[in-house]
Amino acid sequence: MARVSGLAIAVMLAFIATPALAMDDIALPIEEAATELSPNQFVWNDTNTGEALSIVISLSTQRAYVYRGAQMVAATTISSGRDGKDTPLGTYPILQKNAVHRSNLYNDASMPFMQRLTWDGIAIHAGNNPGFPDSHGCIRVPTGFAKKLFGVTSIGTTVTVTDDFESGDAPVEPLVDAETASANGKQLASLGK
Fold it and tell me: What global pTM score does this model have?
């Protein structure tokens, strides 16, 4: 594959967040493009092959990666919890989805395309994305990405929040600790799943 100059990458990345732009129009593989994203940018190339969907949230890189099976199909920048309001590590099923959600904890704040991970206030949703941890524990993503993600996930889709994942190959199926497994089971049971 031919190498792309830094200027060419910058020009391409300026247009990545445009929803109509397909990965065919971008000279970088999605894994490489994911490392070059600036705040509020994302790449999306999901052809919906029917394989299981999973999401990895990397706190160390402030990125979210979406996989179909072992294939990365999307990536974005995030803003996770700031000091004292840390986003908890673990593996969570999506428990609830609400396209027009408002926070009952933080002054009725808008949380568009909310996908709940815990019953005590942790979710993925559209919001301010300055490129560093700045939320009250939620995972904020660009609005365009949040809308696309909301459209392809379902209750029970697995989300792994980690601080030691870079990008590239899909992570090995995470080993869920007993406490998380128990909480996940109770949460899913309460939803009738």
Answer: 0.75
